[in-house]
Design a protein that fits this description.
It is a single chain. This protein has a single domain, classed as MetI-like fold (Orthogonal Bundle). It has 13 helices and two strands; from the N terminus they run αββαααααααααααα. Keywords: Cell inner membrane, Cell membrane, Membrane, Transmembrane, Transmembrane helix, Transport. InterPro entries: MetI-like (IPR000515), MetI-like_sf (IPR035906), UgpAE/MalFG_permease (IPR050809). This is sn-glycerol-3-phosphate transport system permease protein UgpA.
């Protein structure tokens, strides 16, 4: 029989969730409401004069070619960060799950990057690829590739993707490793006895059982690519060359704090919030159907 907890007081359940609800209200709903309100206004950089303009800020966005281009840039960036990050983390987790000697040291080293701030991660990768003194740029030039992320848009995109993937790879690794260790070894051993190859065992047994973890990490990495990579972009390319790496979250900052377009920046933040919420809903609505719980 299903057991349910019954509270004698009708107010006790609300009292227990009150701290969490207060945090959500103060740090999510209130800032979101403020952003929506400010997106309908236009004001001078010092906030001395404010005028209600309705949807004019949003109309200007759709007529701004550079803003529309940032959608394509963000899409390419987020797909690369999510797919490459999950693939490498899964590979490392599979390798770590099989390591016997020095396993704890190996796993600890893979967790370290998660403790690094996004800005620091961006600076580290910037130093490695800074042409011509960076060690990575030096060896790339020795192999015939003249690396210059300041002029080459593909190099700049590769740099911020690599830094973003490296920063998030520890988080993905931990969840994949926990998922692998929760899979019953008897299933894999039975498949091995039946003659299934390691590659066949992974794709027919291990990976399907990892689908809940993979789906969760897919949602988290998409949100990470849209929001938490601002520090990496700002520390490495600052949206350049030109605006080829100006993802949506960086454009919100640039237009608001450098171009001093407060209303337009607020409108961009609202659009960004709607895009991320929509993508999350789509993933839960369609992708989750293929998840085996």
């Amino acid at each position: 029989m299903e057991k349910r907890v019954r509270f004698k007081s009708a107010w006790l359940p609300w009292l227990l969730i009150a701290p969490q609800m207060a945090i959500v209200l103060v740090f999510f709903f209130w800032p979101a409401a403020q952003a929506i309100y400010q997106s309908l206004l236009t004001q001078d950089p010092f906030g001395l004069s404010t005028q209600f303009v309705g949807l004019e800020n949003f109309e200007r966005l759709w007529n701004d070619d550079s803003y529309l281009d940032s959608f394509k840039t963000t899409a390419v960036f987020s797909v690369l960060v999510a797919t490459v990050g999950l693939a490498i983390a899964l590979l490392l987790a599979v390798m770590a799950d099989r390591v016997l000697k020095g396993a704890s040291v190996y796993k600890t080293l893979l967790i370290w990057p998660y403790a690094v701030a996004p800005v620091v991660a961006g600076v580290l990768w910037l130093f490695m690829f800074a042409s011509p003194m960076g060690i990575a740029a030096y060896y790339l030039k020795a192999m015939g590739l003249d690396w210059n992320h300041l002029l080459n848009a593909n190099h700049a995109m590769s740099l911020i993707v690599a830094a973003a993937v490296w920063k998030q790879i520890s988080y993905n690794f931990l969840f994949f490793l926990a998922g692998l260790q929760s899979i019953p070894k008897s299933l894999i051993e039975a498949a091995a006895i039946d003659g299934a190859s390691p590659w066949h065992r992974f794709w027919t047994i291990v990976f399907p059982l990892l689908s809940p973890t993979t789906f969760f990490l897919l949602v988290i990495n998409i949100v990470y690519a849209f929001f938490d990579t601002f520090g990496i972009v700002d520390a490495t390319t600052q949206g350049g060359p030109g605006k080829d790496t100006a993802i949506l979250v960086y454009k919100v900052y640039y237009d608001g704090f450098k171009a001093l377009d407060m209303g337009g920046s607020a409108a961009q933040s609202v659009v960004l919030m709607v895009v991320v919420v929509t993508l999350t809903v789509i993933q839960f609505r369609f992708v989750e159907k293929k998840v085996n719980y």
